[in-house]
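One chain given next:
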Amino acid sequence: MQPHYRRVMVKLSGEALAGDRQQTISSEVLDYIAAEVAKVTQHGVQVAVVLGGGNIWRGGPAIKAGMEPPQAHYMGMLATIINALALQDALEHNGLETRAMTAIKMDEVAEPYIRRRAVRHMEKGRVVILAGGTGNPYFTTDSGAALRAAELGCDVILMAKNRVDGVYSADPRTNPQATRFDHITYLDAINRGLTIMDSTALTFCMDNNLPIIVFSLDKPGNLERIVLGEQVGTMISNQSAQTVA
């Protein structure tokens, strides 16, 4: 089958790497993610990945305890770089060529992020792991993923979630009456206050017409099914559900 998307941005939370046993980084989870990405690359799809750092560092509690916000944010950026190196190792053990690139200069560890170089890596079939967020405090890795996806010309952002298979009207883990959307517009998601990603990132995607698919990472093959055009999870875009149908 021909892939539906040519170039994708995969957004992973740092917490996803911890696994059910709440390790800082689970080798089993890393191997699983690497295998899922490998399935996608077999179809010739170009892949970029942005990781969070919440499994290592959470800035919110530190800020509430009195730490200056920029300091806490920079520590979070460093946590994403640790996660990127771990994922890079797992991907390469699965036979994939990779490049880790950082928004914070760290030449001994990874390449500095340069847009044209990142595009060239992807054109050569390498999985590009983008770490360090945007390189600026006050911006989340959601914003980093949105910004890089637009810069790199990605067709879609694939937001992998744990234990949630899409966007719901309320938290399905606490509200059994919550209903899942197959499709929702950015504006509707913002007006409903749905926690898909932070509002800055969601507004950026809306302004740049960058579609988002929220899906469950737990089900093997979901990533591959999405890039092949199957309906999986929830699509967020500027189109109404009636137009998409």
User: Anything to note?
Assistant: The two ends are 22 Å apart (CA to CA). The chain is about 40% helix and 20% strand.
